[in-house]
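seq as requested:
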Amino acid sequence: MEEGSEVVVRYNKKNHPIMVRRVPKTLVVKSGGAEIARTDKAYLLEESGHKPVYYFPITDVRSDVLKPTDTVSICPYKGRAHYYSLRTGGKEIKDAVWQYSEPTDDFTAISNYVAFYDNSIDAIEEVEQS
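struct tokens:
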């Protein structure tokens, strides 16, 4: 992540650092050969022991590709996550996308954002801002 990008969340409780930063670029998500999300409002979440993850405003993801599932998980740091199947390229990948729709108080900034499992998408690309 670029130096100087705005920190939205700086968390370090129980010796478990997590940082959420604004991404100062436009990002595009491609899956099934199609563009399924485009935003200039992405966040990058960096968490101890995990690889960095991009979060996209759910309003910047094509609504026709997300199908809610009954899957729920709980992170002791970030809160309760709900999942979506991803429907692209003529196939459906169950629980490919998650959202902390019931975040802890420290992570309300990402409550209306979703993240994609790497193996469910083709790529996340930086694009020139128009």
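The longest strand covers residues 91-103.
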